[in-house]
Every structure is written in structure tokens, then in C-alpha cells.
Write a structure and sequence with these properties.
Layout: H1 43-48, E1 53-60, E2 63-73, E3 77-78, E4 85-86, H2 91-104, H3 131-135, H4 165-179, H5 183-195, H6 227-235, H7 247-256, E5 275-276, H8 278-287, E6 299-302, E7 305-307, E8 312-316, E9 319-328, E10 331-338, E11 343-349, H9 354-366, H10 371-376
Antiparallel strand pairs: 1-2, 1-11, 2-3, 4-5, 6-7, 7-8, 8-9, 9-10, 10-11
Helix pairs in contact: 2-4, 2-5, 5-8
Length: 378
């Protein structure tokens, strides 16, 4: 990709945090536990792409079928439908859903400048950025800063698309400022619990083999990423759930590790720090049907692609699709929803080559090519 102001970055470092859900899981039909044979297998494609493990799910109406293939840690721990994977940027639509809930409560105005609550910039043009701009990646902000400094829009807010993790981190700060509740706890209350996402959180469920480790392009485990990176970041902060950490807690933990006090280095990273299962993420997509505003085309991306208020959109004749991808070090994920048919595919992988796996799965499942997958190619 040559234009990083409009194209998705090929690699983003994230730190994850939080505790697992404590709500008792609701009973699921046998199909949700993987008892129904899958319509196709990912394993042959995983082998070709050196991807050790995958968790994937199909949503059709209200029914969810969940599956797992390969290893959570290569050659050591098999993956199951309960294995928790890094959601990476699939975290963004989940945060967006919480923002929409606050809009419905009258606590956030989509068109009111964010600087009315958070003095995040001194730049006059950037002061016009609103939650609507941030949800649609139309605020003109960088994806992530690695050096301190003001956030500055690269264009007139609302006039173009520029993928921005910083924008979603700013949305999380806005939610915290307005409610007085940590963004992670807020998302749990407004989204994870009502959606029935009992194995999701801004951390992972620390029960041994239930966690997927990231793997590099050759399929080797990345021992300093994933769970290891989470533990390091968590242990540098206060001894309580990171879902309850304040901004001061997050900054102090990062500084204790010698990192800049920037969103990229803080946990929980609300733009990329969710851990989940494919089945749980399918539950989120089922829950999100009550938020049609997320399907509102807001800014043009390219060709048949636009961005709504929380995820990408693709128009294909009379059919409309919602989609989002996620990529951390050693992690590649995708969901696609056919908005007309009410069906979805979720694929979570723990390998750097996972894009080749989820791309093949999307094409086979929906029996079509996607402009979004071509746009995502590095």
C-alpha cells in the first residue's frame, strides 16, 4: 500500500488489557459448540499460509455455529471454540456500538466538537472534529502517533477517509469523560453483557490453553507478544482489573515501562485490545442489528467501498455488506455481514498469514469476490 493516509496500515502494535467476563455463560445449542459439521474447512488454507490456529463462526438469523481448527499455540495446545483470540481492530466496531448506546441515551452528540469535552488539539481546523467524523475515520487524524504532540487533521474533517486508531482512542476518552466510567467497563456494561459475550474482555481468560498466541509468517510462536505483552503491561500498573484503570493509571503503567504516554502504548487499548472468541463476536454482530446507524454510509473510501459509523461498507448491486478486519503482530481477523440476508462470517486467526485464510473463507462462504479484500492487500 502506498498511501497510508487512506489505506489501512499493514502492521500495528497493540497492548491488550482487562479481565474476562464473570457473567455465567448462557446455554447454547449444540451447533454453537461446534457439533454441526462445518460447510468447509480452513485447515488446508491455514497449512498453505503457515497459520497454526483459527476460530470461526457463522451467523444465520439468530443461529450461531462455531468452529475451531489447528492450534492455539503451535504444536502445544489445540484450539477450541472456547479459545480466546486477540480481536485486534475488530475491537473498533464494539467500541462504536457503545458510543451509539450513549448517543441513544442523549449523552453524546454525534455532531458536537469533541474539544468541548477534551482539549486534545490546539489546531483550529482539527477543533471541528466530531464523534461522527471519528466513527467514520473521517477526522483526518493519524493512525497512531509514536512521538508526543498535538493531534492534527490532515484534511478538513468529514471530507475524506483516513483510517485512525487515534480517532477511536479519542472516542474512548470522550466516553470516559462524559460518563466518569472507564471505557472498558462501559463497553462491558453496554455491549458485552447484553450481547451475551461471556468469553470476551479487554484481557483474556487466564485458564491455560484457552488463549491463542500470535505466530509469525513462518508459523513460529511470538513469545513476547499476545499474552506475554499483556502480562508485562498489566504488571506495570495498579493491582486491579485494567478494565477499571483510569487515564492516570494507564499513563503511569506505560511510563513505568519507559514508553511514551500515547494511546498506542496504553492499556486497555480500546481500538485494538479486545480478546474474544469467534462465537462471541458473532453474538456481537447479532446484537449490533439494533444499531442500524452503523450502516450509514458516511465517507467514501474507494470504488464500491464506503465507511459507516463503526465499520466498512461494500455495495454490490442490490446487496450491501458490512465488514472489518483486524491485524496485530501475528494476528489477522475478518468479519463480513450480508446486511440483506442477515448472515455473517467471523474468522479469527493467530498467524501473520491469516489474511490469506480469511480472504479465502469469505470468498467461498459468500460465493463472490469482495472489493474490500482487494483494497486490504499490502
Amino acid at each position: 500500500m502506498t498511501d497510508r493516509s487512506t489505506r489501512p496500515p499493514t502492521r500495528r502494535l497493540v497492548l491488550a488489557g482487562g479481565l474476562a467476563a464473570t457473567v455465567a455463560p448462557a446455554p447454547e445449542p449444540a451447533s454453537a459448540r461446534g457439533a454441526v459439521p462445518p460447510p468447509f474447512l480452513l485447515k488446508p488454507w491455514m497449512t498453505l499460509a503457515d497459520v497454526p490456529g483459527a476460530s470461526w463462526a457463522l451467523l444465520d438469523g439468530d443461529r450461531i455455529d462455531s468452529y475451531a481448527e489447528g492450534d492455539a499455540r503451535a504444536g502445544v495446545t489445540p484450539a477450541t471454540v472456547d479459545t480466546v483470540f486477540e480481536a485486534a481492530s475488530l475491537s473498533k466496531p464494539v467500541l462504536a456500538a457503545a458510543i451509539h448506546a450513549l448517543v441513544a441515551e442523549g449523552r453524546i452528540d454525534l455532531d458536537a466538537p469533541v474539544v468541548a469535552h477534551i482539549p486534545f488539539t490546539r489546531d483550529a481546523a482539527t477543533r471541528a472534529v466530531t464523534p461522527r467524523h471519528l466513527l467514520a475515520h473521517a477526522g483526518g487524524l493519524l493512525n497512531w502517533r509514536t512521538e508526543p504532540g498535538d493531534l492534527v487533521s490532515g484534511f478538513t474533517p468529514g471530507s475524506a477517509f483516513r483510517y485512525s486508531g487515534e480517532g477511536y482512542a479519542l472516542l474512548a476518552r470522550l466516553a470516559e469523560t462524559i460518563t466518569g466510567e472507564s471505557a472498558a467497563a462501559l463497553v462491558r456494561r453496554l455491549v458485552l453483557v447484553p450481547a451475551g459475550m461471556t468469553r470476551s474482555g479487554y484481557g483474556w481468560i487466564g485458564d491455560g490453553g484457552a488463549v491463542a498466541w500470535p505466530h509469525d509468517a513462518g508459523g513460529a510462536v511470538m513469545t513476547d507478544k499476545g499474552p506475554a505483552a499483556f502480562r508485562t503491561a498489566r504488571d506495570a500498573g495498579p493491582a486491579r482489573s485494567v478494565e477499571r484503570w483510569t487515564e492516570a493509571d494507564r499513563v503511569a503503567a506505560a511510563q513505568a515501562l519507559g514508553k511514551p504516554a500515547l494511546p498506542l502504548f496504553l492499556i486497555p487499548n480500546m481500538a485494538a485490545g479486545l480478546w474474544t472468541t469467534a462465537g462471541d463476536y458473532a453474538r456481537f454482530l447479532r446484537f449490533a442489528r439494533r444499531l442500524p446507524a452503523m450502516n450509514t454510509p458516511t465517507v467514501r473510501v474507494a470504488g464500491a467501498l464506503s465507511w459507516g459509523l463503526g465499520w466498512g461498507l461494500e455495495q454490490a448491486g442490490a446487496r450491501r455488506f458490512a465488514w472489518h478486519w483486524g491485524q496485530n503482530d501475528g494476528v489477522c481477523n475478518l468479519f463480513v455481514t450480508d446486511l440483506s440476508a442477515g448472515t455473517s462470517l467471523v474468522v479469527l486467526t493467530n498467524g501473520a498469514g491469516g489474511q490469506r485464510v480469511y480472504g479465502r473463507a469469505a470468498r467461498v462462504h459468500f460465493a463472490r469476490e469482495f472489493d474490500a479484500l482487494t483494497w486490504l492487500q499490502p
